[in-house]
Write a structure and sequence with these properties.
Strand order of the largest sheet: 3-4-8-7-6-5
Shape: globular
Number of strands: 9
Enzyme class: oxidoreductase
Number of helices: 6
Largest sheet: 6 strands, antiparallel
InterPro entries: Met_Sox_Rdtase_MsrB, Met_Sox_Rdtase_MsrB_dom, Mss4-like_sf
Radius of gyration: 23 Å
Catalytic activity: L-methionyl-[protein] + [thioredoxin]-disulfide + H2O = L-methionyl-(R)-S-oxide-[protein] + [thioredoxin]-dithiol
Strand content: 15-25%
Distance between the termini: 73 Å
Family: Belongs to the MsrB Met sulfoxide reductase family.
Order of helices and strands: HHHHHHEEEEEEEEE
Structural class: alpha+beta
Helix content: 10-25%
Pfam families: SelR
Length: about 200
């Protein structure tokens, strides 16, 4: 009496696992396990951030080669390829000036004022707000989870992510978790100024 249910279960398991190529597991010599990796959405998302972000247009539009000409290799990886620096490694993590402005390391657009920054202990620079209009948010579904990515509104450079409702004693209860490499700092609180970065050739 137990055999029919077991057979049904085996048949169902085989049908379900067929989608992920069970032969890669049963016959590794003919179908290497790596062949099944593209069928997992997570692996594809590790190397390409939200498609909506890459299609957005910004005032400062440059080609990848133009960005490589003005950014270091690590700046390009984070700003243009949406990478992340190791926690605690950034020069602005524990940087808490009383005045000044943080600008985009790619285009020098002003992003945050010094009084927006607070100590969060997360390992990355944290800000509870940004200069109005300086930062753009959009949904980021990479790494198999829904987050809110923040980018420079002027050039689209990846800054990090914003998190809400963590209970920090700030006016907004938000934490803009930003890569230090995505930023520069000017001790003069003049958010309207930009430095002499090459202009967009778009």
């Amino acid at each position: 009496m137990r055999l029919p249910p077991l057979a049904v279960i085996i048949r169902a398991l085989y049908t379900f696992s067929k989608f992920s190529r069970p032969r890669a597991y049963q016959r590794p010599s003919k179908n290497p396990t790596l062949k099944s990796m593209p069928s997992f959405p997570l692996f594809g998302s590790l190397f390409s951030s939200s498609a909506s972000a890459s299609k957005m247009s910004h005032p400062d539009e440059r080609t990848p080669d133009e960005w490589r000409a003005v950014l270091s290799k690590e700046q390009f990886r984070i700003l243009r390829e949406k990478g992340t620096e190791p926690a605690g490694s950034g020069k602005y993590d524990k940087h808490l000036p009383s005045e000044g402005v943080y600008t985009c390391a790619g285009c020098n657009a002003p992003l945050y004022k010094a009084n927006h920054k607070f100590k969060s202990g997360c390992g990355w620079p944290a800000y509870f707000d940004s200069i109005p209009g300086a930062v753009t948010r959009h949904e980021d579904n990479t790494w198999g989870m829904a987050r809110t990515e923040i980018v420079c509104s002027n050039c689209g450079g990846h800054l990090g992510h914003v998190f809400k409702g963590e209970g920090f004693p700030t006016p907004t209860d938000e934490r803009h978790c930003v890569n230090s490499i995505s930023l520069n700092f000017s001790p003069e609180d003049k958010p309207g100024q930009t430095n002499d970065k090459p202009e967009s050739k778009a």
